[in-house]
Amino acid sequence: MAGDTSHGHEPPTDTATSMDVQTEVEEPSEGGVEGEVEARVGLRYTLYQLRQDPTALVGLVIITVATAIAIFTTIDANVLDYWFAETVWVHPARDPETVEVALPPVGMENVFGQGTWDHLLGTDHRGRDMLVRLFYGTRIAITVGFVSTFIGLVGGTVVGAISGFYGGWIDDVLMRAVETLYAIPFLVLVIAFMAAFGRSLMFAMVGVGVATIPTFARLIRSRVFSVREEDYVEAARAAGVRDRWIIVRHIIPNSFAPVLVQATLQIGLAIIIIAGLSFLGFGVQPPTPSWGQMLSQSRDWMIENPWFSIWPGLAILITVVGFNLLGDGLRDALDPRIQN
Amino acid sequence: MGLLRYTTRRLLQAVPVILGIITITFFLTDAIPGDPVQVMLGPSPAQEQVEVIRARFGLDEPLWYRYVTYVGNASPIWLTSVDAFPFLVPEFGVDLGTSIYYEVPVTQKIMERLPVTLLLMVSAFAFALVVAIPLGVVSAYRRNKPTDHVSRVLALVGVSTPSFWIGLMLILIFAFHLDWLPATNLILPWADPASVEGAETQVDVLVAAGTHLLLPMISLGTLQMAAITRIERSAMLEQLSQEYVRLARAYGVSDRTILRKHAFRPAQLPVVTIVGLQLTSAIGGAVLTETVFEINGMGRLIISSIQRQDFPVVMGTTLVFGLVFVIGVIVTDISYAYIDPRVSYGEREA
Fold first, then answer.
1. Which of residues 269 through 308 in chain A touch B, CB cutoff 8 A?
2. Using a CB-CB distance cutoff of 8 angstroms, which residues of chain A are in contact with residue B20?
3. How many domains are contained in chain A?
4. How far apart are alpha carbons A118 and A225 in whole angstroms?
C-alpha cells in the first residue's frame, strides 16, 4: 500500500508527542533546513495518522484500484480487448446480422442467460460490454481528475503566492481576476472554453484546470498571509534572500498541508465535472467511452434497460467517494484540532 | 449608515468583476470557430445576403469596436449617455444585442427563461437548507451514534454524486417505475391556468408546479444539502466544544437549551459562507438538471446557443449568471450581520 515505510506500526518518535503536526516551523532559524526536516517528519506523522483511519484507507484502496485500472487500460489497450469497448460486439454463437443486448445477471429475467458470464454487467444497446466500457471510462476520469487538478494547483499556487506575498496593487489586480474567473459558472466556463478551442480531452483538462485556479489561488494566498509574518521569513528577508526564493523555498512548502487536502477533494470534483461535460456532449467524443457519455446515451434506453444508467453513475459515485474519504482523512490527520 | 455604505462599496467592487466577465466571455465566444451567419443561412448562401445579415448584427465591425459597443450597451444608460459614444443605444436600460437564432433581443429571451432557472435554484437551496440544518445539528449532537453515522454517510454520498445522475435515478424510480411524478418540463406557479394542461384554477396550477418541481429540486439540491450538512455538523461540533458551553453545562443548563439558545446561532456563519460559494456549482448543476428534466431555463438556453453559435445569447446568459453569483455573494455577506451582531460593516477589509 502506498505510504508504507519500513518502520511498521510504531509511531514516529519525537514529534508525534508534540501536537505540532502542521508543517509549519516554529523557531526562527537560518535557512530552510529546519523547515524541511520538520515538514518531512510531519509528513511521516501524517501518514501514520492516516493509517489509523479505516475510512481514509478505504478511500486509498478505491483510488489505488481505480488508478490501476486506468494505467492498465492505458498501457495495453488490448489487454481487456478494447475492441469490446468501442466497436459493436457480436457473440460468436449468434447471427452476426442481429446484435442483441445481453442483460446483466442481477435482478433481470435471464439470470443465467447466454453471454452473461462473458459480460458480467451485461452489454449496452450495441452489444458492447458494459464492464469493459466502464474500465475505459475510468481511464478518462482518472486522467482528467489528476491532470486538471495539477494544472489548477500549479496555476493557483503561482497566482496565490505572488498575490499574497507582494500584496498592494498586484494583489488587487490578481484577486479581481480570480474573482471574475470564479463568478463565471464553472461548467459554463469550461463549455465555452471547449467550444472555442475544440472538444478534445486535452482542452477538457485545461478548461477544468483553469476553472480550478481560483480555489487554489485563494487558499495559497490566505496561507501566504499567515506565513509571511513568520519570523523565519522576516529573517530570510533581512539576510537579503530574494523574494522569489523566499516564495519557492519557504512559503509554498509551508502551505503544503491544506493544499494537499484541497487537491484530493478537487480531483473528485473534477471527475464529477468531466462527467457532466461528457453528459452534455462536450467531453470525449464517441465511440471512446466515458462515464458521462455512457449516461447520456443511456437516456434513450431507460425503460428497456435501466442498468445502462445505473452502472456508470455507480462508477462515478464510488470513485469520487474514494477521493472524498481520503481527503477527509488527510484533513483530520493534518489538523489535530479536529478530532473526528 | 454602516450597512448602506458597506453595500454600496461591495456593489462598486463588483463592477470590475462584471467587466471581467464580459471581457472573458466576449473574447472566448469570439474564439469559437464557425460563422453564425452560416448557421443561419445554410451551407451556401448568396454573398449579398451574408453581407446584409452581417451588417445587421454588427458583425462587419472590427473586434475592438464591437467590444466597446457591447460593454457600453450592457451598462445602465446613465453611465454611458455621453455624446462621445454616438453608437450607444439611446434609450434607458441595457441592451445585450439581438439573438441571431431567435431574432429577438437577448434581454427578452433571458427574461423569459430566468424565472424558471431562479425558481429551480431557489427551491433547491430551500430544500437543501431545510434538510441539512436539522441533519447537521442532530449529527453533531449525537456524535458517533448511529444517527450521526447515517447522516455522515448520506452527506458523503451526496457530495460524491453527480446531480444529473441523481436526476436520472429519480426519473427512473418516480416517473418510470412508480409513475408518481412527471419526468419533464417545469410549470411556473404563477402561470395562467389557461396555459397549463388540465388546470382550471390557480390551485391546480400550484399543484402541477409542485409535482413538476419536486424531482428537479431534489436532483439539484442534494449536493448543496450534503455540503451544508457537513459544514453544519463541524460548525456545531466546534461551538459545542467551546468554553461557554461547558460553563453552561456546569450551571445545569439543559442540552436542548444550550443547543437552541447558544450554540446554534454562531454555528450558522460558516453555513452562510458555504451557501454563497455553492452558488456557482448550483448554476452549473442547473444547466445539467435542466438538460436531464428538459426544462427550458437559462441552462438549456446557453447550451443550445453555444451549439447554434448564437454568440449574443451566450454572452448575455453568462453575464446574467455572473450577476446572480455576485449578488448572491453580496447578500450572504450582508446576512452575516443578522446572524452575528458582532460583525460590523466598518472599514474592515472584506
1. 272-273, 275-276, 279-280, 292, 295, 298-299, 302-303, 306
2. 176-177, 179-181, 183
3. 2
4. 58
Q: Is A57 on the interface with B (CB under 8 A)?
A: no
Residues 6+ apart with CB under 8 A from A239: A30
Backbone angles phi, psi at A240, to 5 degrees: 85, 20
- According to DSSP, residue B177 is labeled I
Question: Domain containing A6: what range?
Answer: 1-39
Does A7 map to a domain? yes
Contacts of B262 (CB under 8 A, 6+ apart): B239, B244, B245, B248
Amino acid, single-letter form, for residue B19: L
CATH number at residue A300: 1.10.3720.10
Put simply, whether A173 touches B (Cβ < 8 Å) is no
| A203 and A321 co-located in one domain | yes
Tens digits of per-residue pLDDT, A107-137?
A: 333 333 334 555 666 666 666 667 777 888 8
Please check whether residue A54 lies inside any domain of the structure. Answer: no
If asked whether residues A145 and A35 sit together in one domain, one would say no
C-beta separation of B188 from B116 below 8 A = yes
Q: Do B168 and A313 touch (CB under 8 A)?
A: yes
ipTM of the complex: 0.81
Residue at A90 is within a domain: no
Provide the shortest C-alpha distance from residue A191 to chain B (in Å): 8
Here the cell at position B159 is 457530495
Contacts of B33 in chain A (CB under 8 A): 196
pLDDT single digits (tens) A254-275: 777 788 888 998 999 999 988 9
Contact criterion met (CB below 8 Å) for B247 and B151? no
Question: Using 50, 70 and 90 to split pLDDT, how confident is the model at A23?
Answer: very low
Interface test with B, best of A176, A187, A221, A277 (most B CBs within 10 A): A187
Closest chain A residue to B143, measured at CA: A340
Q: Is residue A56 part of a domain?
A: no
Q: By C-alpha distance, which of A233, A212, A203 is closest to A160?
A: A212
Under an 8 A CB cutoff, do A188 and B168 touch? Answer: no
Neighbours of B139 (CB within 10 A): 27
Convert the pLDDT of each residue in B307-316 to its tens digit. 887 888 888 8
